Amino acid sequence: MDFRLYYPPFLLGLSRVIDALLALGGFAILTLVFANATLRSLAGFDLAWSLEVTAFLLLWTTFLGCAAVTARGAQMRVTEIVDILFSPRAKALLEHAINLLIAALLLSLIIKGISISGHTWRQSTTVLYWPVGLLYASMPAGMALSLMFHLFNSWLVLRGVPMTDGGGA
Fold it and tell me: Domain coordinates of the chain in residue numbers?
């Protein structure tokens, strides 16, 4: 169910920015890993800083990817049992309950992620001396974006807006 067809311009633009960041991050990860492996095999040395940058990019693309998936409503669902056992009204109530549970989970991840990031902010990475908290900040940032998309998507579901199966903006 691609929710982006119903997004206001701000959310749609944010979704597109996240998509662009994911594409750039993925390309940078591939480039760094390939260059580092090539240097290691051909020249006998590697770029120590590339491992830290790659770890940073992997963390941030993972959690931004969660937001991109949420914007599309593309989380994996197994609905066969629910379709067999529940009436349409019960399925709607179950979906609303699950949406509340997901919102609570995302909120708890934001709170815990802020705590972890804050506690590790004064630590530095070994090569680039970046704050370790910057790595951990990917979780609350990605979860906050996911929560924003999830709340809007849940509001659309509550309103009964028909969703599409794919495509999108």
Answer: 3-78+86-158
